[in-house]
Amino acid sequence: MAPGSSLGWDEIRREFDTVVNMTPAELVKWLDTEESQSVGWTRKGEQESVGHQSGRRIVEIKRKKTAELTDEDYAHMRKVVGYVRRHEAQGGPAGDKRHSRWRYSLMNWGHDPLRGK
């Protein structure tokens, strides 16, 4: 089991693979856009937002085989699942979701809320 979690690693991986609905290639391309870089909270003294850093980490995780995943990878997967679930529950803005900071932020975390809609 992952540290501090009642979920087993297999379940964490399944949840992660469910909420991260962008491929590594799509996410890499997205992270290079102005829209991606325009959203999110940046820690003091850093240049890159937390979400943007997460996106890069997600790409690394998605490219690993299950046997290569570390405890830190599973901890990050749990963080991604929590972030996406919380922000999806907000439902986004009432107006244009396609061009919203809400969507852009979720996409930095590997989740396009408009995919499949």
TrEMBL record:
Outline the segment boundaries, as ranges, of region: Disordered.
Answer: 38-58
Q: Which keywords describe this protein according to UniProt?
A: DNA-binding
GO MF terms held by the record: DNA binding
Pfam families per UniProt: DUF3140
The name of this protein is: DNA-binding protein
Tell me the lineage of the source organism. Bacteria, Pseudomonadati, Pseudomonadota, Alphaproteobacteria, Sphingomonadales
